[in-house]
Amino acid sequence: MTSANPSLPLAGRAYLVTGGGSGIGLACATRLAADGAAVTICGRSTARLEEAVRKILADVGSGGDVRAVSADITVETDVQRAVAVAMEATGRLDGCVANAGGGGVPAPYHAQDSVEFLRVLQLNLLGTMLCVKHTVGPMIAAGGGSFVGMSSVAGILSHPYFGPYPVAKAGIEAMMRNAADEYGRFKLRFNAIRPGFISTEIMDGIPRDGAVYRSYLENTPMADVGRPEDVAHLARFLLGDEARWITGQCIGVDGGHSLRRGPDFSSTAEMIHGPAVMAGGMP
To answer: Could you say which protein family the record assigns here (predicted)?
Structure first.
């Protein structure tokens, strides 16, 4: 579907962005709305979503079509409802940015809590799978579409003490490759983005004068951190016609971080669990 207005190349298209209330998700939604798309953001905090809608409209103008729906992506009926809301504006769905996810408390594997481990896997893997499950049908009905899964540099580089997070992100990449193979015949594309350190609210918790932050800079050739907009620009490209022949790919937005090694969270993990646990003792 091609827009008649070249200044709004995504006019008439509808997209769902999960975790759209802040950070990368908010930046992706803003970028899509700026190009004329009808964007629906979802998340668990109604107040945060409402503020995000106001911010997007302020940034792109009152003519943008932006709506929000409170949803937990690990709950299947919530995902179904979010997809239905995303289709209200145009009667179709052209794509999805499955951005919602997160990690847990840094810990070596022998100190991992199994309940917390499964929570992180469910949030990232199950949540992304449910988004795939319930967006495929509408995108096929629209004649094609694009799905962007949010991985991480942790999906390809070891991130000691991140426990389930690297496992989950690697799983998302495998899911995108398999989905690309399964649904290519329907003109559906599936790709993953691998952000490195992006300056979001979550990453603001890492002290800028500490060893952890320093390890990020030392392992990033460009010696800096990224912005949410850096990821949003790639997401917009992958969702548009310009990327019509790109599928099953995992693309880094990391300033070159993936060329080196993961960050050093050993000081954080030791502060939480103590030196005895870090030396291999049981908690």
So the answer is: Belongs to the short-chain dehydrogenases/reductases (SDR) family.
